[in-house]
Specification:
Helices cover about 25% and strands about 45% of the residues. With about 140 residues, it is an alpha+beta fold.
Length: about 140
């Protein structure tokens, strides 16, 4: 339904980028739409870890519970979430490149079956969220 892929190169080491992006508690440092994150499972972050993430959507807070589906440091993490109206899968791939690394962040959002009619609204809200998140991520990884 709505998919956005961010690709960028940074001088930061792959492990640092992996740590930043695989632990959702770091999201408020780069995504202005994320206001609060709570780790719901024990440390360390790994496959099966869960986070409660509060995201601002159309000016309103929406709580989403993310689960780490795949955790392969420092190269790949898959984070999945669902609400009553959408499901989301974020696939983050990191590859060493010169003195830094190349990052691919693939965000895929789909409405739940009962909310298919709201696809245009969901897609428009998602586009704004992704634009803000991409700008924040680029700033954070350039620091």
């Amino acid at each position: 339904m709505a998919r956005h892929i961010i690709e960028l190169t940074t001088l930061l080491p792959a492990q640092d980028v992996f740590t930043l992006l695989s632990d959702m508690r770091n999201a408020p440092s780069w995504d202005p739409n994320v206001s609060e994150v709570e780790l719901l499972t024990d440390e360390p972050v790994r496959k099966g870890s869960r986070f409660r993430v509060t995201v601002t959507v159309a000016g309103r807070p929406v709580a989403m519970e993310y689960t780490v589906r795949q955790h392969l440091p420092p190269h790949r993490v898959i984070l999945a979430a669902a609400t009553s109206f959408v499901s989301s899968v974020d696939t983050i791939s990191i590859k060493e490149a010169g003195k830094g690394c190349r990052v691919s962040y693939d965000a895929d959002l789909a409405p739940r079956p009962l909310f298919i009619a709201f696809t245009p609204f969901i897609a428009a809200s998602f586009a704004k969220i992704v634009k803000d998140a991409e700008a924040g991520l680029r700033r954070r990884l350039e620091a």
